[in-house]
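Per-record layout

source: Aeoliella straminimaris
name: PEP-CTERM protein-sorting domain-containing protein
length: 219
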Amino acid sequence: MHLNHLATSLAVTAFAFAATTAHASIVLQPVGASTDMGTDSNGAFSTTNVIDQSGLSTSYTSLVTDFDAYIASNPTHDSAPSRNTWESVNPTGNFDFDLGGTYTISSFALWNVGQDAGSNIIDFTLFAANNSAFNSATNLGSFSADPNTGDVFTVSPDVFTFAPTSASFVRMQITANNGISLTAFGEAAFAATAVPEPASATVFAVLLGAVAFLRRRSA
């Protein structure tokens, strides 16, 4: 009876440990970006500008910084300098993010150019896939962004949440901007599920092993 109680206690501990170590959301910075919308011929408007943290008032450490806490701190983006933004040739099309590995993602943070400018993204659909061709892609949902989340110098993040999904690549299919012939935005990042550190994973495995051993003993 004592062993049964101990096994139950360890099982509850293991469950609580898993819940606190494996489900925290951390900021994921894409490692690559590409588009079929064209990029302004001014070389300063590169696609990499929106994944390199340029213009952010507060930086983060990819796969370390807590996503919710970071967003709650309201990290703003300066979209005035062209080196901090991407600008297209065509108003609609696809903008793809390479996540640099396979992660479970659950939110997308977008820093528009703000100030209700005509180039702001308005409507878009997100697709997740484990290949750059987006074969068998998962539709994460259609969303509407706010074009006026602050002055162009201090644009706040707009966050879009969806069901947790495993992905290596994410496509933002932009279907409407705020009314002009080109589209632009300042920065993007994702919320990913934290993976337990090796030491934490070892502790979890030991707890599960102890539960199994005690249950066998009490049988």
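summary: The CA atoms of residues 60 and 70 lie 8 Å apart. The chain has three helices and nine strands.
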